[in-house]
Amino acid sequence: MAISLNIFSLVAVPLVYAVGVVLALVAISQERSSQGAVAWAVALVAMPFLSVPLFIIFGGWRFSGYVKKFRTQLAKTPINQDLLPNTLRLSRTELGAMQVIEKLARFPFTRGNETDLLIDAEEAYAAIFQSIERSKRSILMQFYIINDDDVGREFARHLITAAQRGVQVRLLYDEIGCNRTPEAYFSRLRSAGISVSPFGSATRMGKRFQINFRNHRKIAVFDTQIGFTGGLNIGDEYLGKSKGQRTWRDTCLRFTGPTVKAAQFSFLEDWHWATGEHFELDWSIPTIQDDAKTALFLATGPADKDDTFKLFVVQAINAAQDSIWIATPYFVPDEEVITALHLAVMRGVEVRLLVPETSDHWIVGLAVHAWIDRALSNGAKVDRYKPGFMHQKVMLIDDRFSYVGSGNMDNRSFCLNFEAGLLVLDKEFAQKIKSMLERDFERSEPMAAGHLAGRPLLFRLTVNLARLASPLL
User: Fold this and answer.
1) Cα–Cα distance between 34 and 12 in angstroms, integer?
2) CATH number assigned to the domain comprising residue 326
3) Residue 292: other Cβ atoms inside 10 A
4) For 228, how many CA atoms within 13 A lie in the half-sphere containing its CB?
5) Which of 25, 237, 294, 327 would be 354's cystine partner, CB 3.0–4.6 Å?
6) Are residues 172 and 149 part of one domain?
7) What is the pLDDT of residues 67-81, one digit of tens each?
8) 138 and 280 housed in the same domain
9) Is residue 221 part of a domain?
10) What's the CA angle centered on 340, arms 336 and 342, to 5 degrees?
11) Among positive and negative, which fits the CA dihedral 280, 283, 286, 289?
12) Is residue 223 part of a domain?
């Protein structure tokens, strides 16, 4: 036994350390952010027995193959030509050069859109189920999480009924988000004639244990004319029915107009990646109303050349002249975003952050404390939402520019997840967003600067350790 242990220590231990060094070099060469690269490199060299298996599962492998499929799909789709007549050319001075965001999105801002703000799950689910009932030709839907609970089964019943009356239904889900959903749930949908597929980020890259890249988008398109996006998944927790949990506060958008075609295209490229299937859809744009809203559909992800969602956030913050209001369940930004917020405060912009009182992920919740402390010390105002878990992802700039979508203020949304949301450049709609957030702030508690100073030393050390892990969360 002693000899066996000696052989293990002489061979296996150096081998694990050597693997840690090799993977540290891989992390340095492949991680998009310097913070992430440093965090992984230090952990892999200093603690290889723990970090090597974690890197195999969560490490920053490149998401390959998706871009090539996207270009193939784009060549077959007339969306760019159809959208061009409806673009609204924005001036270089308007809200900090919005043409930068157009380049990030790969699609332009378009006029002729209508948007309906759906506050909380009751309103959102009712609108989505009604749209399923009224659909006549096609339904495209994707969610990060679809639970096999009361809400999930009602969702399935509506889809099955639509398929039975001849509607072509396609449903895309993320297998990491749906890891607790039994396969029997999706089998029932397939048996009813519904096309169902996992996104495949954990299995189609030849890395079965790699679960870093996730499709976090929430998109629904009905009859190629009506779109939905936001932060809601399909589950009882959003209605407060999940055992031991309070209601999740979230926000969703229903929209029509040219932006629906961009949302439709985003689904199409995801579906093509997951299944290899190309199918025909209607790309024509309905008659444009002159008084309709200007909007842009923004789909981002790790297949992009740049960290598109983070660049959008930084650009929006830098463009602000009067106010920035951000509601996010996970405020775990990086130095670039926290610096942009600090500079906004210094130039006289009101910065308000709305976060949940408690997090649904304990280590993320600890890291949030550290970043909130930074934001408060920089002059931002931070409020903690108290009635339930706040899961909405909303941004309001200068009471004119709004974002509602799936993207969080964390490294996962910035660099690793596929995200989607709608940007609306309209004062009337921005006022609705502002009124909604004002009601949320009324149900929240402001946090004071230096809130960590009075906490126990062990808690503060734990918070700072969690902050160091922020690029990995």
Assistant:
1) 30
2) 3.30.870.10
3) 18
4) 28
5) 327
6) yes
7) 555 555 555 555 655
8) yes
9) yes
10) 115
11) positive
12) yes
Residues classed as catalytic: 216, 218, 223, 391, 393, 398
Q: Is residue 107 part of a domain?
A: no
Does 106 reside within a domain?
Answer: no
Rg of the chain over Cα atoms, rounded to whole angstroms, equals 23
Torsion angles phi and psi, residue 354, rounded to 5: -120, 120
129, 258: one domain: yes
Examine the domain organization and report whether 437 and 321 are in the same domain: yes
- 332, two tokens: 């775990």
Question: What counts of helices (H) and strands (E) characterise the chain?
Answer: 16, 19
Cβ(82)–Cβ(284) below 8 Å: yes
Residue ranges making up the domain that contains 459: 308-472
Q: Which residue has the tokens 């096609």?
A: 138
8 A C-beta contact, residue 315 and residue 396: no
| pLDDT 10s digits, 8-63 | 555 566 776 666 666 666 666 666 556 666 666 766 666 666 666 666 656 655 55
| E strands, 202-276, in order | 219-222, 226-230, 248-249, 251-256
Could you tell me which of 286, 154, 273, 266 has the C-alpha nearest to residue 219?
A: 266
Integer Cα distance of 95 and 424 in angstroms: 12
Q: CA-to-CA distance for 411 and 467, rounded, in angstroms?
A: 12
State the maximum Cα–Cα separation within the chain, in Å, rounded to a whole number. 83
Is there a contact between 146 and 152 (Cβ–Cβ < 8 Å)? yes
pTM of the model: 0.84
**Angle, CA of 212, 62 and 198, to the nearest 5°:** 50
State both tokens at 354. Answer: 């709305």
